[in-house]
Amino acid sequence: MENKDIATPSRTRELLNKYGFNFKKSLGQNFLVDVNIIQKIIDASEIDATTGVIEIGPGMGSLTEQLAKRAQRVMAFEIDQRLIPILNDSLSAYSNVNIINEDILKADIAHYIQEYLSHCERIMVVANLPYYITTPILLNLMQRSLPVDGYVVMMQKEVGERLNAQVGTKAYGSLSIVAQYYTETSKVLTVPTTVFMPPPNVESIVVKLMQRPHPEVAVDDEETFFKVTRGAFTQRRKTIYNNYQSLFVDGKKHKKVIAAWLEAANIDFSRRGETLSINEFEQLYSELKNFPELEI
Ligand code: SAM
């Protein structure tokens, strides 16, 4: 029997020709044309008939189609209006898919979860992300306290490595800490450029992030906590003592106070941000209230 999967070069080409579609690089349009990779992504997400899926950027529906076969319902946000009639055509056989023509960074996701996924037992975000906005998308989703159980997402390899980095490694930074704060991360697989049409210029990786029941450390003001973590990495080669002089208002004038704050938190002032664990950042954060001179 003829292979009808959208995620094949022949079917993708057929749809491109039928609709005269041309890829927009500026929207990160690299479509998957390999069903095996898609199956691995879906297996890692442990999707079953009780799972609701949020997909970001369905493209022509290659991943969406396979998700629809396994999940209870799939809602997919696609910014490119030209893809909507194509998706309505390519996915016409699936009644459990909702396509939403909106920018994922602006959409009221909580409202759509309520509307389409409220009957699902668990909710997973599964996507081949538009790489140019991977970080804003993930931060935006994680920081909104949505009822999401986890994420299995494909992205540029370097970003995936940062999300999944251990303390003390080159890739470790403020993004690793945000990910660790909200989720437990693991690498699923690396993906060759050959499974995309057109092939991207960068290597890809699939990362799994499972939401923790409670954040890894207890902080009452997340915004300040993340300013403290980001502030340690402003210039990676510099010590935290130097970097923190740029974080605080009149930081250079408050060198002594900064040194006293670091000492109170038991953090040697000559250390670099990449050596600090999330628990050490939490110590810095909780000591901050004893140093009112240090204003962010
Ligand atoms: N899922 C498809 C696949 O794997 O073949 C397409 C993935 S492609 C890497 C990324 C998709 O995200 C494109 O379809 C693009 O138009 C869409 N996109 C880009 N920016 C977006 C945004 N801000 N909100 C929603 N979708 C977006």
Automatic annotation (TrEMBL):
It catalyses: adenosine(2085) in 23S rRNA + 2 S-adenosyl-L-methionine = N(6)-dimethyladenosine(2085) in 23S rRNA + 2 S-adenosyl-L-homocysteine + 2 H(+); adenosine(1518)/adenosine(1519) in 16S rRNA + 4 S-adenosyl-L-methionine = N(6)-dimethyladenosine(1518)/N(6)-dimethyladenosine(1519) in 16S rRNA + 4 S-adenosyl-L-homocysteine + 4 H(+). The keyword Transcription does not apply. The keyword Cytoplasm applies. S-adenosyl-L-methionine binds at N30, L32, G57, E78, D103, N128. GO terms for molecular function: 16S rRNA (adenine(1518)-N(6)/adenine(1519)-N(6))-dimethyltransferase activity. InterPro entries: KsgA/Erm, rRNA_Ade_diMease-like_C, rRNA_Ade_Mease_Trfase_CS, rRNA_Ade_methylase_Trfase_N, rRNA_adenine_dimethylase, SAM-dependent_MTases_sf. Its EC number is 2.1.1.182. Belongs to the class I-like SAM-binding methyltransferase superfamily. rRNA adenine N(6)-methyltransferase family. RsmA subfamily. PANTHER family: DIMETHYLADENOSINE TRANSFERASE (PTHR11727), DIMETHYLADENOSINE TRANSFERASE-RELATED (PTHR11727:SF7). Specifically dimethylates two adjacent adenosines (A1518 and A1519) in the loop of a conserved hairpin near the 3'-end of 16S rRNA in the 30S particle. May play a critical role in biogenesis of 30S subunits. This protein produces a dimethylation of the adenine residue at position 2085 in 23S rRNA, resulting in reduced affinity between ribosomes and macrolide-lincosamide-streptogramin B antibiotics. This is Ribosomal RNA small subunit methyltransferase A. It comes from Staphylococcus marylandisciuri.
